[in-house]
Amino acid sequence: MSALSFCAESHAGCLFRRECIVTVTSVVGLQWGDEAKGKIVDILTDSHQVVVRYQGGNNAGHTVKFDGETYKLSLLPTGILRPGVKAVIGNGLVVNPEALLKEIQSLTDRGVPISGENLMVSDRAHVILPYHIVEDAVYEKRRGEQAIGTTGRGIGTCYRDKALRSHAIRIGDLYHPNSFRTRLADIVVAKNLMLKALDPSVELLDADAIFTSYTRYAELIKPYVVDTTAWLHRALQADANILFEGAQGSLLDVDHGTFPYVTSSNSSSAGIHSGSGVPEREIDRMIGIVKAYTTRVGGGPFPTELNNEIGQHIRDVGHEYGTVTGRPRRCGWLDGVATAYGARICGVDEIAVMLLDVLAQLDEVCICEAYEIRGERTTDFPSHVEDLEVAKPIYRRIPGWKQDITGARKLSDLPFGARAYVDSISELMGLPVKFISIGPDRAQTILL
Ligand code: IMP
């Protein structure tokens, strides 16, 4: 590979010049995902030459407005939209090659150039195979009322096979056809036995058909497949500005989130090192993304959920429907206890408050500042889901501002109530707010 060189001076004229100083940045969601991370990643991409995804798969959904167009990305890092930026799919992802190729095609159809020059996929990433998707559905069906509410993309079942090892296929394995064919035949026998036992209505899988389609996918994705870990280390040596783009959110982290109602990867910043090979000490700036209220898709406890007209109002105004599945998101007040916990897990330096404009017409806005659990007040986030289920939120109430704020461009343009609300978020989290987003456009961002 040719020597890498990155020009640190190339953003002298950019709107967000302050963001150019730092070399390695991480953007991570502090709630249950869908915090509008894509917008901040997009702003920061101006000053970064490399954007890296390190966990998850095509369960994620990012909506990005770029050059007046709206793009919905799932597996591809947001940086793919920017000329000159390298987008990296790290080793920590689970990759469905068919979904990857479809996403590449949909972007190239819209004129976004994608080649081995601007997209790199780790040969260590794990491959989602058709049986992972079938298993995901079978397990969810068997859980009935306790269903996790997965995206149905075979994410958890692929990560399970990664941990199991004997049933795992990595991208690099696709280029060793003899051993791939032998291992696949063996795996499919086991999968068919298990699936049939769990759900007799399931259609049996055909190893030969899977082998044929996956060897074809392997050829098609070959231009992008590299050892991304080695590539990232070279980029670091060449002083590239690297941006880590988290998917989902910290409360969905398999170790630190609301287990078992979580995704199956480390979706907090804990996943950066394992999912990219870049040590955490390389990260200069950790930005936590906080939606001005809370949303969640799928099952699991949600203490500040609003099953009333305010929740519906937030859903309607915030267009709170899943990017990947289209499911209506559950909506509620901002949970300061959960979000501050997410920030502690991630080691966040600063926060971005997103979608503040959505709360504009409410008489009053609330932030949960503590829980009452079985009569005791606490600001600790419970480790067991049954404790979180009985947690009663204790709210700080702030008068609504009842005013459109989408035209605000500086802090002083915001009405008193909106500023008081942002101050409360900062105080409860013990962190400075550095961005306030008051609309989808880049210009609708207040930098502090
Ligand atoms: P899975 O990742 O498909 O296994 O789903 C596990 C849980 O994570 C479910 O509650 C999903 O709704 C949730 N989830 C997965 N990806 C996202 C996301 O990008 N945003 C929000 N929730 C997600």
List the keywords:
448 residues, alpha/beta, ten-stranded mixed sheet, four-stranded mixed sheet, 12 helices, 19% strand, globular, binds inosinic acid
Write up this protein.
The protein is an alpha/beta fold. The chain is about 30% helix and about 20% strand. A ten-stranded mixed β-sheet has the order 9-7-5-2-10-1-11-15-19-20, with helices on both faces. Strands 14, 16, 17 and 18 form a four-stranded mixed β-sheet that branches. It has a two-stranded antiparallel sheet with strand order 3-4. The longest helix is centred in the middle third of the chain and has 22 residues, at about 175-200. The protein is globular. Mean pLDDT is about 95; it is low at about 5-10. Bound molecules: inosinic acid. Inosinic acid binds near residues 32, 148, 155, 248 and 298. Inosinic acid (IMP) binds near residues 60, 155, 156, 248 and 263.
